[in-house]
Amino acid sequence: MLNRIRISTTLFLILILCGVLQVGSNGLSFWAFRDGYQNLQDVEASNQQRSALAQTRAVLLQASTALNKAGTLTALSYPPDDIKALMATARDSLKQADAQFKAFAAQATGSEKEKALKAAMKTHFEQWYSDLDHQATWLENNQLSDFMTAPVQASQAAFDGSFDAWQQDINQSVLRAGEASRTSYHMSGVIFGVMVILAGLLTGAALLWSRKMIVQPLAIISSHFDSIAKGDLARPVAVFGKNEISAIFASLKAMQGSLRETVSDVRQGSYAMHTGISEIAAGNNDLSSRTEQQAASLAQTAASMEQLTATVSQNADNARQASDLSKQAAMTAKKGGDQASHVASTMQEIATSSQKIGDIISVIDGIAFQTNILALNAAVEAARAGEQGRGFAVVAGEVRNLASRSANAAKEIKVLIEESVSRVQQGSALVDTAAQTMHEIVTSVTRVNDIMGEIASASDEQRRGIEQVAQAVTQMDQVTQQNASLVEEAAAATDQLASQADRLTGLVAVFNVKEHVEAVTEVGRSQAVPVVS
């Protein structure tokens, strides 16, 4: 119930109660002071009246004494001057007594009894004053008999009786005022004690309320902050009531929920990042292995291309040599036509040259066969190289076609040579047809020369193509090495990123974000914050 009242309102009510107690205490103190002051005023007024009345009686006694002395001096026939002085003193005393009694009579009167006593005293004063005044008059007129028979003693006794009665009443009034002052004093003490007890009760209630409504909830809030600082985000924060402390609990609960969601998202993200990094690392390792295999294959291809380049270069040299021999054969055939007389020896030279040409053709045929095999190997390596070896495959196909053509040409030349040898063997019997045969030989040798020129040109093209393929393979090897370096750098970066992900996962793992219900002992300490699951 109390936790639904705002703390500021409660504090304001406490201040109002304190103010009421303070005002009440001050009011009662003022009442006691006023009562005491009134009693003091009454006592002071009584003392003043007593003093005035006592002085009046004393002055009247002085006047009576002066008149008695004057009467005695008159009876003894003393000088008139002495008597006049005493009479003057008596008259002055009477005047003073009259003035003082009037001052006494003018003072305020309290009770009815005091009024009655004052009225009786006035009557007795006037009687005593009148008797003294008559004595003075009689004495001034030398009426000693009247002076001596004046009832002054009786009027004085009556005045003294009323004076004593009034003084006794005044004393009782003073006693009553003192008793009232003591009663007021004791009442003030009792009221002060009650005020102290009420103030103590109010202070105790305020302390108990502040402990229940402020100190204990703030201690619970502090413990929640300590739990959050230690990484425990699962401890439930209960909100109850509608005061300022409850608003703090609500804000703390919202902050804890937001922090828990943030930590959960970061934890899930770190786990997902760790999984992705692991997959990237596995892919990098696989790519590194494949890149190494590709680099090894390219190295083998480069070695094969070097061998193929050497073979093609040798084939080109042989083709040039064959072309030179073909030219020489053509010149020889021309000379044979001019020197028909030397047919036998020329035929023998032709047979010898034909034999050499047959050997050269065999060499050319072997070179074409080897070129075909190398072209086949190059095509296989180009197929292994995939997309990057497509151009190399095209060049290898052209080389293979040229090798096939070279082989066919060599076969044709071989056939021609065999025919030439056969004809040379029949030369002796066919001298008549030597010119025609020599013409055919010149024609065949011309064809051989053309074919050998084509072979030489094809060999040059093969050499240039193979050099381009070798250059491309070298570039591919460089690119592959660069890729291997990049893969290694990527692997290193992946390892570093994985370590950072592990560190982030470890940092996030400190927080406990699972909900759990704790004991209600905490709420027992403060009714403002019960546990709500």
UniProtKB/TrEMBL annotation:
CDD domains hit by this protein: HAMP, MCP_signal, Tar_Tsr_sensor
Membrane topology according to the record: Multi-pass membrane protein
The UniProt record lists the keyword Transmembrane: yes
Positions of the Methyl-accepting transducer domain: 269-498
GO MF: transmembrane signaling receptor activity
Residues that span the membrane, as ranges: 185-209
Full protein name: Methyl-accepting chemotaxis protein
